[in-house]
Amino acid sequence: MANGQMKSAASLLMVLNFCMYTILLGIGGWAMNRAIDHGFIIGPEFHLPAHFSPIYFPMGNAATGFFVTFALIAGVVGIASILAGFDHYRSWDATSRPAAVSSALIAWALTVLAMGFAWKEIELEGRNTRLRTMEAFTIILSATQLVYVAALY
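== AWPM-19-like family protein ==
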């Protein structure tokens, strides 16, 4: 009975996390595209600004570049962990569990890292609605991914 409850909890969390990681990747992709399109253009006659950062984002604040970069990495690894979890869900035996749990744990660790940059971005203020949404999804995902790891284990 408990095994069936864990399986249904894991499937619910898989769907929830998949949707949230997909939204995180969508907003992160928008932010990265905007940063590439509207970033610094340095030519031979131009000099770097005094506080130049190679991770410059025209919206947000000083933490935005780090937050978006790590959120994108966490999103891709999170989607991969969901795929490994789906494989485990189909068989639900001891042979597929280590791959699902380890990939989910790595995704959770990267999500927590991105969450740290989200908190720094919140502290520095000056960001738009899309970045606030991305921060909220990252913070929520750090909790739901941890519960997902526990359900798989």
